[in-house]
Design goal:
Length: 95
């Protein structure tokens, strides 16, 4: 699955979230963000932004680009934007 990575310096790049299972994909996301993540809903709800759950406690730098995209007052550290797809088993991340 692809995601858009937004670094604190404003650099954006497409990254690959790997893993055959949701658990394995979450492990990949943990590695990219530095730990557990929080979800910020974007716009109409077809996309989500994932951010470090403890970013403020870790003293991570503000991510001004992510804040502008999400229209959210304070986001820190690296952010990932992923798609959201509804299934019969619940919502899952997608490209």
């Amino acid at each position: 699955m692809k995601a858009l990575r937004i670094d604190t310096d404003g650099k954006m790049q497409t990254v690959e979230i790997t893993g055959e299972t949701i658990s394995a994909q979450n492990d990949c996301i943990y590695a990219m963000l530095g730990g557990y993540f929080d979800i910020v809903r974007l716009g109409g709800g077809d996309a989500l932004m994932l951010v470090d759950d403890e970013g403020l406690l870790k003293g991570l730098d503000e991510n001004c680009t992510a804040m502008m995209i999400a229209n959210y007052p304070m986001l820190v550290g690296t952010a990932l934007i992923v798609g959201l797809m509804q299934t019969d088993d619940g919502d899952v991340f997608t490209d």
